[in-house]
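F.,

This is the one I mentioned.
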């Protein structure tokens, strides 16, 4: 029986365990040009005992930003700043992937330079609100991407992936989940296109598949993961025929030889098991445990073969040495959602020591 504390070989390296730190937006990119700071390096280095760290979402372009103070990987200043983060993680023996997150229609004009407008598959506003410096604001109607602009957006992902490698990341995770741009292309209500980028299932999966192929061609498949969240309604997403939609997406991704697929699970475990069976590569599962954070019980998902590795989110913020705590059965500090975002320093150094 395989356990979560055994090594796992992927991405060209062997990681020490099968406990993954999930990507979590922190909105603390206070450095020049929305770049990480020394506090960011400390934050990730403290959590380097994870088998794999997946960074907070990083926008691949200016227009890909949807929240205040989120970092980018589209300028030389950002690359230099991230190199300090990856160096700190590697000095602690860790492995870290950059999550590339284009938020698409989730955003607000106040977050973007003057004259820049959020983009999406179709000109349909998301029925939700986003954080801004002035508080919660409704999303506005985005600009529908032209076919040429779609190709330009794919090129932005490629450029950001190359920048990630230049910054010392071990790889990248393409964010195809949580209602952001790639999942907007997959959806029924955000993608109303009738060209080759919409309409049929094959059309709706095309953007995500072509982003993955272009990025793997640029930096190598062993350095590329892909995150999905089938049926997740976050950010006003509606999807139908999930088994076929995501089955076709995985079919398109399979020949690429990706490092992994990372599934953020909904309440349908049967769908998870179907996709797990279909995907022949490494399968990371962020299990559905709502309303509680993923905890000790999730380790059994590696033992019974449901997943090759398990991703933990909120518990990693409160317990930077989480793998050790899991192996010892606790104790666990309770995550405080009030410290997840913003300028406070909790979550970086303020956590109880193991007894």
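My design for it:
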């Amino acid at each position: 029986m395989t356990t979560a504390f055994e090594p796992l070989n992927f991405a060209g390296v062997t990681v020490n365990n099968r406990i993954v730190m999930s990507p979590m937006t922190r909105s603390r990119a206070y450095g020049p040009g929305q770049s990480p700071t020394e506090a960011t390096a400390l934050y990730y280095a403290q959590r380097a005992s994870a088998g794999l760290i997946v960074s907070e979402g990083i926008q691949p372009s200016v227009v890909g930003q949807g929240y205040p103070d989120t970092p980018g990987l589209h300028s030389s200043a950002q690359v230099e700043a991230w190199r300090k983060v990856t160096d700190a993680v590697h000095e602690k023996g860790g492995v870290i992937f950059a999550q590339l997150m284009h938020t698409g229609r989730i955003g607000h004009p106040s977050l973007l330079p003057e004259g820049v407008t959020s983009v999406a598959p179709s000109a349909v506003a998301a029925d939700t609100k986003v954080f801004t410096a002035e508080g919660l604001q409704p999303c506005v109607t985005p600009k529908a991407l032209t076919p040429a602009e779609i190709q330009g957006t794919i090129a932005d992902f490629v450029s950001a992936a190359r920048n990630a490698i230049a910054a010392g990341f071990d790889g990248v995770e393409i964010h195809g989940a949580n209602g952001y741009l790639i999942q907007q292309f997959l959806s029924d209500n955000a993608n109303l296109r009738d060209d080759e980028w919409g309409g049929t299932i094959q059309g709706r999966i095309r953007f995500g598949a072509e982003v993955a192929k272009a990025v793997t061609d640029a930096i190598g498949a062993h350095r590329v993961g892909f995150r999905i969240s089938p049926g997740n309604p976050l950010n006003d997403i509606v999807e139908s025929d999930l088994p076929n939609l995501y089955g076709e997406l995985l079919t398109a991704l399979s020949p690429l030889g990706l490092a992994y697929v990372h599934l953020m699970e909904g309440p349908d475990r049967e769908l998870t098991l179907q996709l797990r069976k279909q995907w022949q590569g490494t399968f990371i599962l962020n299990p559905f445990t709502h309303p509680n954070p993923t905890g000790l019980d999730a380790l059994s998902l590696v033992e019974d073969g449901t997943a090759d590795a398990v991703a933990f989110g909120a518990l990693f913020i409160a317990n930077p040495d989480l793998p050790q705590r899991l192996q010892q059965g606790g104790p666990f500090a309770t995550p405080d959602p009030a410290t997840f975002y913003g300028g406070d320093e909790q979550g970086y150094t303020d956590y109880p020591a193991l007894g």
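The chain is about 30% helix and 15% strand.

Talk soon.
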